[in-house]
Design brief:
Strands 1-2 form a two-stranded antiparallel sheet. It contains six helices and two strands, in the order E-E-H-H-H-H-H-H. By secondary structure, the protein is mainly α.
Length: about 190
């Protein structure tokens, strides 16, 4: 029966199968006359030079193999970092021929973190008062004097007496009062009003 195209073979190569490139010689362990069908690297420095062992001796060799034996923690870390780039030199993005400032600005704008919109963490408003600042229409950083001035303007505008006793204006004034109180508790005392 012909094998249909694109079918997978059900034959699997076992992990302990002899190496097909074995040189057809005896095991490299003295006094072992079994076939040396399994290769093992000679050392960390010469990974392409092999010992040829029988199955029993390659298992024993592999059980005792420690690639990092004799390395300091710093050397191990350096070796692992080099392995992440396949032992090839790498550079952080933006250095040594990296992306240009124009391309970086476009990528940042696409991601929604453009340079013009991004603010340094020290300049960002505390999370507790961001909503209050938005209610009063203030930018961060602000002073007590600026907050007080904006509060007075909004209080006069939304006061129920100035709006003929409108309940919606009264609710807006309550929201403005709460926002101003929240901002005052986070601004340093003695600066401004």
């Amino acid at each position: 029966m012909p094998v249909p195209p694109f079918s997978r073979s059900t034959r699997r190569v076992r992990a302990f199968a002899p190496d097909p490139d074995a040189p057809g010689r005896e095991c490299d362990i003295p006094d072992c006359h079994n076939a040396g069908d399994y290769r093992a690297p000679k050392s960390r420095e010469s990974l392409r030079e092999y010992y040829w062992f029988c199955l029993e001796h390659v298992r024993a060799y592999n059980a005792g193999w420690d690639y990092y034996k004799g390395m300091s923690p710093g050397e191990i870390e350096s070796n692992l970092r080099n392995d992440t780039g396949w032992q090839r030199p790498t550079w952080p993005l933006g250095r040594n021929g990296g992306i240009s400032d124009a391309l970086e600005a476009e990528l940042a704008a696409f991601a929604g973190i453009g340079r013009a919109r991004a603010t340094a963490p020290a300049e960002r408003a505390p999370p507790e008062i961001r909503e209050a600042l938005a209610i009063l229409g203030l930018d961060w950083p602000t002073s007590r004097e600026a907050a007080h001035s904006r509060y007075k303007t909004l209080a006069k505008l939304h006061h129920p007496d100035a709006n003929g006793g409108d309940k919606a204006a009264e609710e807006r004034l309550k929201t403005i009062n709460l926002a101003y109180a929240a901002i005052r508790t986070h601004l340093p005392v003695g600066v401004g009003a």
